[in-house]
Known about the structure:
single chain, alpha/beta, Spore Coat Polysaccharide Biosynthesis Protein SpsA, Chain A, eight-stranded mixed beta sheet, two-stranded antiparallel sheet, 9 helices, globular
Amino acid sequence: MSESKENFSLSDPQACTAAILAGGLGTRLRSVVHDRPKVLAEVQERPFLAYLLQQLARSGIKNAVLCTGYMGEQVKIAFGDACGSMRLLYSEETSQLGTAGALRLALPQIKSNYVLVMNGDSFCDANLGEFWAWRAGKGAEAALLLTQVSDTRRYGRVQVEGDGRVLKFEEKGGTEGPGWINAGIYLLDRSLLLTIPEGIPVSLEREMFPVWMERGLYGYGNQGQFLDIGTPESYALAENFFRGMKSN
């Protein structure tokens, strides 16, 4: 079975569905984005979420589930049922369930063997096909995309072995200086979602990743540019970030 899985690609609907975590309250961003969910914060006159959907579509993803919550109806109005040839589905929280709880709620709409999970408030200019191939080579049930930053204190640091196995997550505000951080993109075996408690708030980062480390959790290091828009200061960098990407 594992051998056939390695032949799957991101463009195979049976192999991989995307899920974007777009239900956060965005409280830190309210001073500059107060009338919409943060995934609809405008960057170059486009919703931030449009950049994530474009990245998925270019990678060959055929189905994406948008895990919405706060002001979620605005997301559906903005994007409808498709982004180009990519089908869009919606899973809406009626109460805050956390990053893992939102995925568990969306499970009935995820029919594929694997799910490519993305945080809705960050972007990493990574080759998702290469990430998929690397995960398949490891035979990993769970893999995180990692990126390097000059100072990990704001994000927390991820320590990995030479083969990519995750050893430790350090909390925000810890070790300073350059290092690997969680870029907010994950490839997870669908069966792992069944281990998430149902109907209660659960965090991927704080509660599920430590459990999955025992089963083999891997981190894929890449050099892609990274941006999150979680604070007014980082959101202010978004215009130049995407303008710079276009010029590369």
